[in-house]
């Protein structure tokens, strides 16, 4: 590959993870991870880093591939049986990522020269025995290398991050450590030195006993009584609504976000107001200039689009500058002040566009990274598996309850969230047959545009069969049967419809019997 093609290919490869705040592909490209043990954990870790675009991997394993490995270690195939694991893994990882450099050692870790360890930024212990772990731990401490150690036993596993003194890696919070030391000191206090402190502790203990007594005497009996009542009427009164169903997807999303197609349509007539609009506008300009939409798989097209988007971004910056610094103000500003304005504006609308921004923005891509993907995908499969067995009358475990889990890779926490069914849910609740939709319209939109916007997002409504009203005041904005209420050209502004106002569309005549939707609630958002 030519150098430029290679860089573009790389930007495509890593475009999604580039969206992660704080991500820098180059840093990853310059880094080296050493994986000691290429078994079940080692294959996973190596695969993750290969996909994410690590610069170099060092693989160490003294074993050869066995048939029993093949049910877990996805880098190996049946024909590899008998070959060194580290070597086979290196071949497969290079297929995954041609830019990856790999050194593979078919050796005991204790026999490796220290130079090999020195090259690694981080060492990952994916070993299967204690002695190897203890030896590696020792080496890492001596070389001041951070070590991430892990292991599994059946259905259990652990991960331990080990940062040796002097590794240069910042870890821990000063405030928390101060708290911890204070806590230790408090435990060690002597009563003779702090008599009042100890008396206060005893007082608190007495009060706590008192609270407990009051609870038992006055609170618990009431709880028991109410619980007893609920138990008696549960089957008749609550069971049907509560058991054997979960909130639906829509329950959690009362107002779905506006469809991007609407923003794009508005951009056709309007001027870009933010970074994303610039790319959308550039796509429109591209079509005008070249006669077709850009092919996002064609590097040339993307580069041309990039240039057009950059032009829009610069115009946007310029426009905002002129709005904030009119000519009369400009005269009074020093060069430094002008530069500061320009820098601020640049910060507000983000840096110059990069290649991968085009597809990320046009495709409305969301930041994603392999590490979290694999955790989440695994949970998803696990739940699907349980449900599948259940459907066939078998049981390999309860579906997770509450039915919603958040994994926070930053804090290393799984949090189950209590969620509830929404009574007025459009999909599973009382408002079935209704739709709440946010629509984006230009500032000078008229009634006709409302119908056009609906059509753009896939709800084609015949204006002669739908009525538009205000849900609370019941004011009529459009009624095809009443000539005075029938003006497609009347502006929403003229009807005093402001941002976030709601319009209700209800079917009349034929539409009343034919439309699946009995009512649309449109939330108006001016662009
Ligand atoms: Zn629902």
Note down, in words, how this protein is organized.
The chain is of the alpha/beta class and 527 residues long. Among the domains are: 132 residues, 3-Layer(aba) Sandwich (Rossmann fold); 73 residues, no CATH class; 93 residues, Ubiquitin-like 2 activating enzyme e1b. Chain:  B, domain 3 (Structural Genomics Hypothetical 15.5 Kd Protein In mrcA-pckA Intergenic Region, Chain A), CATH 3.10.290.20. 46% of the residues lie in helices and 13% in strands. The protein is built from 18 helices and 13 strands. Strands 3-2-1-4-5-6 form a six-stranded mixed sheet, sandwiched between helices. Strands 9-13-12-10-11 form a five-stranded mixed sheet. Strands 7-8 form a two-stranded antiparallel ribbon. Helix 4 runs parallel beside helix 5 and helix 11 crosses helix 12. It is globular. The protein starts with a helix and ends with a strand. Bound molecules: zinc ion. The site of zinc ion has 10 residues, from loops.
Summarize the structure.
The protein is an alpha/beta fold and 527 residues long.
Write the layout of secondary structure elements.
Blueprint: H1 3-13, H2 15-18, H3 25-29, E1 32-36, H4 40-52, E2 56-60, H5 85-96, E3 101-105, H6 114-119, E4 122-125, H7 130-143, E5 147-153, E6 156-162, H8 174-187, H9 195-242, H10 260-269, H11 275-290, H12 299-324, H13 327-330, H14 335-349, H15 355-362, H16 370-391, E7 405-408, E8 413-416, E9 434-441, H17 447-456, E10 466-469, E11 476-478, E12 502-507, H18 509-514, E13 519-526
Helix pairs in contact: 4-5, 10-11, 11-12, 12-14, 12-15
The structure holds zinc ion (ZN).
